[in-house]
Amino acid sequence: MDNYYNNYNNISNLLLSLDSYIIKDALENAYVIKTLITYDIDIIIKIFKNYIQQYSDINLSQIDKFTNIVSIIIDNQIFYIYCYNYSLSRYYYNSTECYFDCNLIYIKYNSNYFIFNHYSILYNEIYYRRINRKFCYLVDNFQNILFLLIRNTKISTTLKNYYISKINYAQKLILNGWIMDEYYLRDKSWTINYWINYVTKLSVIKLKNNIKNKIENKCIFCNIKFNNSDIIFNINNLYIHHKCIINKLYS
Ligand SMILES: [Zn+2]
After folding, report:
1. How far apart are the CA of 242 and the centre of ligand 1, in A?
2. The pTM is what?
3. Concatenated DSSP letters for 72-128?
4. How close is the Cα of 251 to the center of ligand 1, in Å?
5. By CB atoms within 10 Å of each CB, which of 66, 73, 85, 158 scores lowest?
6. pLDDT (tens digit, 9 = 90+) per residue, 107-129?
7. Residue 192 Cα to ligand 1 middle (Å)
8. All domains of the chain in start order, with CATH
């Protein structure tokens, strides 16, 4: 593993020295480095080839005009560097991950770790929330889903896809043992969690003491009683199976 850390740090430091941002995704893979680059991808490749010793192969795949993936093989390990030619704010508005507080952390040369400071949240708060595997959604834009759920009002396909991508990203964190709470938006939040966590940790999720633990234990769509290991979507006082809300959004 010694080589792994050396190689990882060498690649990161080279990127930082080129004025790039390194994105600290909560779900990042150990061999993936996501970065916002400020130089052309050709320059980045040239610098990698000149300064990374003992690499056996470096390849470039272009995903689109703004996204390239560089794969570097060193010591029989493959590192994938996702290079985005975006500004930090553009990356923020384009990506699903950034709408969750756990993904607001970046590294920059000489400024160490910092957060995208569009919200009134401090770096320390996010740091400890990540250690405790807690996260929340940041933008108050899920209100239209209530019309769909309660009144069966039609909503646009674009908006449905938007909701599906956010809900499914949150589900990945839940499957990795995270808890989604109402930390930032409070009553305007939505969350998804294992049902057992709504039953036993409702005051932690809602961030309220003395909360009445009387919550509906049946899905409003399929009317089936929840099992502890079911993943459940919650908005206001509505509780719905993850798969039922996704089906509804696809219908
Ligand atoms: Zn259901």
Report:
1. 8
2. 0.92
3. EEETTEEEEEEEE---HHHHHHH-SGGGBGGG-EEEETTTEEEE-TTSS--HHHHHH
4. 14
5. 158
6. 999 878 888 888 889 999 999 99
7. 13
8. 2-132 (3.10.450), 143-250 (no CATH)
